[in-house]
Design goal:
Elements lengths: L14 H29 L1 E2 L11 E2 L11 E6 L4 E6 L15 H7 L1 E7 L2 E7 L5 H12 L9
Parallel strand pairs: 1-2
Antiparallel strand pairs: 3-4, 5-6
């Protein structure tokens, strides 16, 4: 009596299953990125006065692109993760700042040099986080995303 184990269809590592899990994972990561982006955008308010330190920053422009509300999310398939954050614009760089961009300076705080009428002065910024709190608010929604997602 000869017994053979050539039936690979019963194993879990079939390419169809791997592809289905990968597609479901990409779909769910994209949904998670969308939730966080929406939460961060809704926390940014348009008003003329500056926000209080510790609360999300105020948005002072109606420009469709050059604003803190331009938040994107991108699926990084090589790392199986989502990158979410404000769009980096090719505007002025921050002089003398440890933080490279305005969104970084808003989120984490720090100091930068402002130039106005050819005079420079050092200004300290209090942190006004908006991405971190948005992620914390949306985390409970992530639990159910992967349940029954492979079909």
């Amino acid at each position: 009596m000869i017994v053979s184990f050539r039936d690979k269809g019963a194993f879990f590592d079939r390419q169809a299953i791997i592809d289905a899990v990968g597609a479901a994972n990409a779909r769910n990561l994209s949904k998670a990125g969308s939730f966080v982006r929406r939460g961060a955008r809704s926390s940014l308010r348009r008003r003329k006065k500056p926000s209080t330190p510790g609360s999300p920053p105020s948005v002072h422009t109606n420009h469709p692109v050059a604003t803190l509300k331009s938040i994107w999310f991108v699926l990084d398939r090589s790392r199986l993760s989502v990158v979410i954050g404000p769009v980096r614009l090719n505007g002025r760089s921050l002089l003398g700042s440890v933080r490279g961009t305005v969104p970084e300076l808003m989120e984490l705080g720090g100091s930068a040099t402002l130039e106005k009428r050819k005079k420079r002065r050092r200004v300290r910024y209090s942190p006004r986080p908006f991405m971190g709190p948005a992620l914390q608010r949306e985390l409970p929604k992530f639990e159910g995303l992967w349940a029954n997602s492979v079909k």
